[in-house]
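Comment thread on ticket #2218

A.B. wrote:
> Attaching the input chain for the structure job we discussed in standup.
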Amino acid sequence: MAENDLDVGLADFEHHVIEESKRRPVVVDFWAPWCGPCKSLKPILEKLAAEYGGKFRLAKVNSDDNQELVTRYGVRGIPSVKAFINGEPVDEFSGALPEAEVRAFLDRLLPGPSAEVRAQAAELRDAGDISGALQKLAEASMLDPDHVGIRLDATEIMLDLGEADEARRLIGNLPDDADPRVPKMRARLQFMGEAGEDQAALDARVAANENDLDARLKLAHLYVAAGQYAAGMDQLLEIIRRDRSFEDDIGRKTLLSVFDLLGSDALVSQHRRKLASALN
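C.D. wrote:
> Ran it. Output below, let me know if you need it in another format.
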């Protein structure tokens, strides 16, 4: 444990962090005894350092006692976690994240046997080769059968394709804290289930009657389920503009649920402004 989880200061930072990071990732936790969130994050980091069995080193720096390090690495608030590889900081986060998000942060630093194949799948997906991406994800899953991220990559593709049953099978009984994407995917599945009709039929309804707000609502659900968030939110805004009272203000309520799904996203900021304008 001492080799994988230790307290570090200015005198031994070079040895325990900079030099060690040339052999394996080193995660530095800048904390202080008076910091409440630090007391939540520190046990999570210590638990994961033990669980990962030496794949990374956890170096804990008391910020009060090491102001020179705080200044050197631009620590502006604590807890502040910085990851070092090959002597350089490569990633970081601030605040007391839940365990699932800390684990995801670590997994980005620690590529497993499937990492290269998974990366190839992402490249194929970005290039529009969905079948090739799914084939690569299947190969990655064979190399790393228990990797939650691979399953979720495939689930995301199924959601984009509108394949609800396969997406539901892939996500299975994964707990929401297994990965930050899980609750978002479950929300997308719920939106998909509420659409009820295919896009072509709904588009035809709107084309025939622009005030068919039921069709617009179902289209919004389909768009959000498929990850086309801007298009979905635009339909909801149109419902609000045309009839705020439709189904007890369902347009606004659904739009707020999409905001919750996306969190702090640029699209959310943009559509919050549009919502404020529509409500005036």
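A.B. wrote:
> Thanks. Noting for the ticket: The chain has three domains: 5-109, 115-178, 196-279.
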